[in-house]
Design a protein that fits this description.
Blueprint: H1 2-9, E1 13-15, H2 23-26, E2 45-47, H3 57-69, H4 77-84, H5 89-95, H6 100-106, E3 114-116, H7 124-135, E4 148-150, H8 159-168, E5 174-176, H9 185-194, E6 200-202, H10 216-221, E7 234-236, H11 245-254, E8 260-262, H12 271-280, E9 286-288, H13 297-303, E10 312-314, H14 323-332, E11 338-340, H15 349-358, E12 364-366, H16 375-384, E13 390-392, H17 401-410, E14 416-418, H18 426-435, E15 440-442
Parallel strand pairs: 3-4, 4-5, 5-6, 6-7, 7-8, 8-9, 9-10, 10-11, 11-12, 12-13, 13-14, 14-15
Antiparallel strand pairs: 1-2
Helix pairs in contact: 7-8, 8-9, 11-12, 12-13, 13-14, 14-15, 15-16, 16-17, 17-18
Amino acid sequence: DSDLSMRTLSTPSPALIFPPTSPGFQNGRGSSTSSSSVTGETVAMVHSPPPTRLTHPLIRLAAKQQKEQAHVERLPDQSMIHIFSFLPTNQLCRCARVCRRWYNLAWDPRLWRTIRLTGETINVDRALKVLTRRLCQDTPNVCLMLETVIVSGCRRLTDRGLYTIAQCCPELRRLEVSGCYNISNEAVFDVVSLCPNLEHLDVSGCSKVTCISLTREASIKLSPLHGKQISIRYLDMTDCFVLEDEGLHTIAAHCTQLTHLYLRRCVRITDEGLRYLMIYCTSIKELSVSDCRFVSDFGMREIAKLESRLRYLSIAHCGRITDVGIRYIAKYCSKLRYLNARGCEGITDHGVEYLAKNCTKLKSLDIGKCPLVSDTGLEFLALNCFNLKRLSLKSCESITGQGLQIVAANCFDLQMLNVQDCDVSVDALRFVKRHCKRCIIEHTNPAFF
């Protein structure tokens, strides 16, 4: 205990998310040194632990009375650490400023497996530098306990911040930088090259990221036996508008262990890119190509090569997909559980029939804004997909109350039904409610409530 006290006394600790106008920032007794600040922005501060001795008698008496009333101080260390584990990074740093005991507890290594920072004004680069420096004090230049870094929506994150993570966090397993549009390919390459255990990567909204690959130096150092593979299993590249087929080819060749891939609104992806993907990534369970307007039935033929491994597929608003593409998926991907085909106006009752007869374990289906789907298609669903729990028929002009009644009479486990902008009667909605008691109905009929 004495060694720990001496160590923490000589080690600065960061406190994050203190705007210059807040009381905590204006009170100089809380910190001994602070980094430079800019008006109107959030910066990282460095301070020493709170003093252990109060000199003035009146202050000492007030502190004693306050301590007697603070029942939280009676909790054992393990309980305090458990409570601290629910706090975000900035609040945990605030707790380190309260007293000596809280300082020591707040920097328990078990609490620093995750760093979570959010906000547009925070100086993320500096915050990450200060935090990793503090966490590396027992193992110089290497932070072995940190496994997750989440800095979503931090627009001031730059390549410098990611480089800090890459250099100091070799055990990193999860990185989320969604909405941080200032980072580039080079910084992402550094992270995936220097963090060999990285499995979860979210770069959604990072418009400058065009592919995922190793750095040239890392590729040279790898032995031929190891190859040029990256251990990423979950990759979210939603809204990476610059991603093209060639970049997807590079991703597929390096990330062969992918099981979850999300390419929503990657508008430059075509069927050729999906062909590259299926050559290398044969273990994909979840795939989204929503709003990829160049993906067609030929792309569905490629995706169908995943066969029974595919459980989740989103092709929403892919206007070039018709019953032909749905038939490929239905024929080969028999264990499909989730399909989002909203806005695929080329899908008809025939496509729904193929799907219902072959994917009988389907649990969630969205065929909203498919005007060619009618009650006939719903009848095929009702007679084959008894496990259906979620069904969206929003803006399906050909759907009537009769089709809904057939579904409700056979799919007792239905939990969500969306019939907004559909011409269905109140009696049909009441029929659904009677037979599917746990079903939440989203509708636009003012007479039903």
